[in-house]
Automatic annotation (TrEMBL):
UniProt gene name: htpG
Domain Histidine kinase/HSP90-like ATPase stretches: 27-184
Biological source species: Glaciecola petra
PANTHER family in the record: HEAT SHOCK PROTEIN 90 FAMILY MEMBER
Entry keyword Flavoprotein: no
Principal place of residence: cytoplasm
Region (A), start-end ranges: 1-345
Gene3D superfamilies from the UniProt entry: 3.30.230.80, 3.40.50.11260, Heat shock protein 90, C-terminal domain (1.20.120.790), Histidine kinase-like ATPase, C-terminal domain (3.30.565.10)
Keywords linked to the UniProt accession: ATP-binding, Chaperone, Cytoplasm, Nucleotide-binding, Stress response
Quaternary state and interactors: Homodimer.
Subcellular location: Cytoplasm
Protein function: Molecular chaperone. Has ATPase activity.
Protein name (Swiss-Prot/TrEMBL): Chaperone protein HtpG
């Protein structure tokens, strides 16, 4: 008899299960995509491991997923012959959520179903989605290369706990048996299942098979013989790696589904770029720009990077060496012809091929964004609203592409009524009046603080546009972005902001007279402030305020000083 031991789910898993069952009612069929996707991942992992140990195939290297139904028992089975799991794996993988930032994610949940179902879409439900349609799930698994007595069984009803037991399992891999809920019986229908698989799994690189019963030989209407077919497993998907196919043969839907598979994202991608690069380095890249930022975009441990394949063999997830940090939102994959199959993260780290591919991919992504900005400003804006603040790390990180990145940035500005970041540096320059040769900006703690900065007074008076930078990252950005299109970026709070070129003679004369009228004030101010200040000067920058503090141009801006202070410097 099989002895089960009971384990409790991690709190977050319980929350996820609860939430999922209540909020994913409109799109239940996705569970099949998740389970087939996991089976394909398991096949990829086995192929990778078998590169160094062929015996793991146990004499059968034909990897596939098989879907079958037992109508009487009311069960649906999804069975793979991939890498498999041992007891330890299964307790960890199917009892906890490994993603970083999960706790924070769940603390954001509001109890409002509509809002929460949005959030859960960003999070991804993975294996646990089985419980959308099943009231009991059994998983039988055995690791490739282990003996038949090394099997493990996992059973749960999706409530507080699950049970595991040692079992015998002759064949390697994982079988997931869903005990379908009474009201979800449609998922026991062969035709329904096939159509879901076709919709979601054409791009999956291993065959997804259904069993076809034998057909007896028969006779046609004119007495001609129609040959029978033997019972067999038949594949319902194309089962070729999508990126190896010709661009012109791949539909938008296939690209979209493939994105969901590699990114574990539920939303559609904004755009993508699929390229076969030939020449000194040969590789295929398929790069996607997501439409929504992941919940953990600002989490330092969040996984980023591309899936790496070498000659069509999966090597690793999250190979972050192929994308600069400021493009960490890009998802997709890379298939290299030049890297060795036994490549490791260490080898990738300091490698000429890596560098060449990284440069190529960076160019692709920047090009994709440029094109989007030019052709479809609205979509670009929606991209920017999600990822703009990440892109702002670019000028500091990627010197070679600084100008390109700068052209992609968008800012709030005195030219706009609201705080939306929509103004490009090129827009700004196109509006510069004659005589103005700098791009002016104000940095502050918030958009509101920038908007009401006293430094803006003179610019307002003269009708000069100023970019309003109120994001945390902006100060850092501006310390690395010193010019664009040959024009200096100038803080409006800088001491030597000089707009006098724009003044006419009458104004200049009036200013001289005004200075004379308050002679002596400067001396008194200097005396009472002592060495708290470097200098006290007259200015004609202010219209409503009597005085303001400015930074010397070689010194820190006041905003930077505040940042350093808050960092304990
Ligand atoms: P994800 O696929 O995003 O990692 P899932 O919830 O879908 O998350 O799966 C959790 C983990 O369980 C996987 O990362 C994998 O380690 C393991 N797993 C799930 N299904 C299988 C399977 N068919 N074969 C082997 N391992 C699996
Ligand atoms: Mg998964």
């Amino acid at each position: 008899t099989v002895q089960h031991e009971t384990h409790g789910f991690q709190t977050e898993v319980k929350q996820l299960l609860q939430l999922m069952i209540h909020s994913l009612y409109s799109n239940k069929e996705i569970f099949l995509r998740e389970l087939v996707s996991n089976a394909a991942d398991a096949a990829d992992k086995l192929r990778f491991k078998a590169l160094s140990d062929d015996s793991l195939f146990e004499g059968n290297g034909e990897l596939s997923v098989r879907v079958s139904v037992d109508k009487e028992a009311g069960t649906l089975s999804i069975k793979d012959n991939g890498i498999g799991m041992n007891k330890e794996d299964i307790i960890k993988n199917l009892g906890t959520i490994a993603k970083s930032g999960t706790k924070d994610f769940f603390s954001q949940l509001s109890g409002d179903q509509a809002k929460d179902s949005q959030l859960i879409g960003q999070f991804g439900v993975g294996f646990y989605s089985a419980f959308i349609v099943a009231d009991k799930v059994t998983v039988n698994s055995r690791v490739a290369g282990a003996g038949p007595d090394q099997g493990v069984q996992w059973i749960s009803e999706g409530e507080g706990d699950f049970a595991v037991a040692d079992i015998e399992k002759a064949d390697r891999g994982t079988e997931i048996i869903l005990h379908i809920k009474e009201e979800e019986k449609e998922f026991l229908d062969d035709w329904r299942l096939r159509s879901i698989i076709t919709k979601y799994s054409d791009h999956i690189s291993i065959p997804v098979e259904f069993f076809k019963e034998a057909v007896e030989e028969s006779e046609g209407p004119d007495g001609e013989k129609i040959p029978g077919t033997e019972a067999a497993w038949e594949s319902v998907n194309k089962a070729t790696a999508l990126w190896t196919r010709d661009k012109s043969d791949i539909s938008k839907e296939e690209y979209t589904e493939f994105y969901k598979h590699v990114s574990h994202d539920y939303a559609e991608p904004l755009t993508w770029s699929h390229n076969k690069v030939e020449g000194k380095t040969e590789y295929t890249s398929l790069l996607y720009i997501p439409s929504k930022a992941p919940f953990d975009l600002w989490n330092r441990e969040q996984s980023s990077g591309l899936k790496l394949y070498v000659q069509r063999v999966f090597i690793m997830d999250d190979a972050e060496q192929f994308m600069p940090t400021y493009l960490r939102f890009v998802k997709g994959l890379l298939d290299s012809n030049d890297l060795p199959l036994n490549v490791s993260r260490e080898i990738l780290q300091d490698n000429k091929i890596t560098q060449a591919i990284r440069q190529g991919c960076t160019k692709r992504v920047l090009g994709m964004l440029e094109k989007m900005a030019k052709k479809d400003a609205e979509t670009y804006q929606s991209f920017y609203n999600e990822f703009g603040n990440v892109l702002k790390e670019g000028p500091a990180e990627d010197f070679a592409n600084k100008e390109k990145i700068a052209a992609l940035l968008r800012f709030a500005s005195t030219n706009n009524e609201n705080n939306e970041q929509t103004v490009s540096l090129a827009d700004y320059i196109s509006r510069m009046p004659e005589g103005q040769d700098k791009i002016y900006y104000v940095t502050a703690d918030s958009y509101q603080a920038a908007r009401t900065s006293p430094h803006l007074e003179v610019f307002r008076k003269k009708g000069i546009e100023v970019l309003l930078l109120g994001e945390r990252i902006d100060e850092w950005l501006m310390s690395h972005l010193t010019e664009f299109d040959g024009k200096t970026m100038q803080s409006a709070a800088g001491a030597n902001v000089d707009l006098s070129d724009l003044d006419d003679d009458d104004t200049k004369k009036a200013q001289e007279e005004a200075e004379k009228a308050v002679e002596g004030v400067l001396e008194r101010a200097k005396k009472s402030l002592g060495d708290k200040v470097e200098e006290v000067k007259f200015t004609h920058r202010l219209t409503d305020s009597p005085a303001c503090i400015v930074a010397t141009d070689d010194g820190m801006t006041t905003q930077m000083a505040k940042l350093m202070q808050s960092a304990g410097q």
